[in-house]
Write the structure tokens for this entry.
Amino acid sequence: MEFIGFGLLYGLAVTAPALAIGMVGGKAAESTARQPEMAGRIFTVFILSAAFVEALALLGFVLGILVQGKL
Amino acid sequence: MKAFKKSITLMGLSGAFVAASAVAAYAAEAEAEGGGGGASALIPKMAEFIPAVLAFFIVFMVLSKFAWPAISDMLEKRADTIRESLEKAEAAKVEAERLLAEYKETMAEARKESATILAQAKQAAEATRTEATAKAQVEYDAMLTKAREAIVGEKNAAIAELQASVARISVAVAGKLIGSELSTEDHLKVVEKYVSEAGSINEN
Amino acid sequence: MEVLKKLPEEVDLLLRSLSTLNVNGQEYKPTEFVLSNYIFFMCVALTVLAIIMYVAVKNLKMVPDSKVSNAVESLAQFVRDDIAAGMIPHGSKKYFGFLATLFFFILTSNIIGLIPGCKPSTGTMGVTVALSTTVFAYFNYVGFKNQGFLGYLKSFVPHGVPLAVAPVIWVIEVFSSFLRIFTLAVRLFANMYAGHIILGIFAILTSLFIEPMIEHLSAGSVVGALPSIGWLALMTALYLLEVLVAFVQAYVFTLLSAVYIGAAAEAH
């Protein structure tokens, strides 16, 4: 039961960030293809956005781990 | 870029809200259960917070005093040095190019000059030669003429003398042959006439 | 799967080892003020940082020949040019020291944490909140100093906001600026904590599958140990990812601090 709870929590927590990080990465690749001379700046922006999104996913993961013993 | 910043801010905000609410909930729960347990990991502990702040400030002070100024100065100095040497190299290159152009120009000028000089010399030599030839020709002609004149003069004089001596000898011969004294004057005249006739025949 | 029966208790042990303990492994009590395991490894990281910085500064030369000072210089240049100058439009030089300290502090902690047996001091909320609180205090100090007391307070409301909604926006903005403490800290903490949990779980799986083979060697136990090769490969890949994460998180933390400082340094 605990594992199912954790699995559900993590799975649900990660769906939106997964979509978001896909969008960010796709857009970054697209922008780099469109303007290769801006690649450095786009990479910075990409890392920043990815970090923002990733934090949410990791928060879900950490909460899941932490809650595990409480369900 | 503005839209991007906005979206980043929104993302950060939403993340913060999620985190804050989650933590609030779990902190409440953890407190209800009397501390310990899972969510306590998300609550900063004073025993870590205070040493960390102190350590950060000590590191900040020490590095700001000893490390960052030195490193930042060195970076700037190196950048300046590189920029300067690049500028110097650029200047040297321009100078070298200018010198090369100047040198090339000088060379071309010198070549042109030498060609002119050569042509002049050739011309002068040619003129000298022509002049010398002409002079020699003139001298030769003059000498030839003089020589001819001299020869003609000598010949005429010789002929004249010959005529005179022939006449005298003839008169003397004739006087001796005849035994009488001829009037020298008259006979000379006659003989001369003959001799001159003979001379003229001879001449032709 | 018989071997997996042991997994929950092993994971519990892992989680316990990753929670804040006394440095001697005893249970940590909030009432006692003692050296915790994370603070111990923070001290280790800072000692390493001090040694690296000493060597680097001592070997600073116009034509660098020391690897340490070369590495430190290029990282410092990265902080100065890409983070500080990129995010703070004017006078980024003043904030270089703070940002570089932040970057090197977090980076050293993260890297030290990747050594087996060590822990990243950034893997506990106490330290990350301490860092983010310092950043919060610093950018507010910069804001008050550069824009004046009222000017900075006013700068929370963007230009062109109608007067009627301005107070609401102001409250929201001030609140969100306080939330920065939390978002910065949680992002760093969650990355480090989760990364180490994942590494630990794969390590546990590797050893769980290989255990029967060590206890008694037989054809069955050898076949049973085969999956641990896969777990080990996954763990290695994730370890490399964690090296990247160690850099990226230091970068992101410093970058966001620079963004906040840049926003506070002048009216926008």
